[in-house]
Amino acid sequence: PSGLRAELADEWLRCEELFAPDEPPAEPGPQLNWLSTMWALVFAVLRRGWKPVVTDLGVANFKGAQVGDAAFIHYCYGDDEFEKRRYMTEDDAEARVWRAAASAGIDAVVCERLRAAAEYYDLREIPGSR
Fold it and tell me: What pLDDT, in 10s, does the model give residues 1-16?
């Protein structure tokens, strides 16, 4: 409920601080800040004593889920058609990801949104496409 937004946000930030490292990692590399942020939200809900409710506002690309009328897509699981982890290097992120394609389902919607972003940012000549 919208009346609980401020209370949830405050608790979420308090829980997020529990994950904050005392110092930066010794070596550069992939960080899991996104993971701590998701768990902090879970802990915030539980600490407030609230019960999570599953809605149809979003859909995850898990076990062939379809987009339907979902307000947002949680893309997490890759497959042979589209796997976001193929675009981890700087070259891939700047060039290949804009041309990603998939034939159906959530993968196709994600690829369509990538192409729309390229158009929005006026990437007429996609880097690395020559």
Answer: 889 999 999 999 999 8
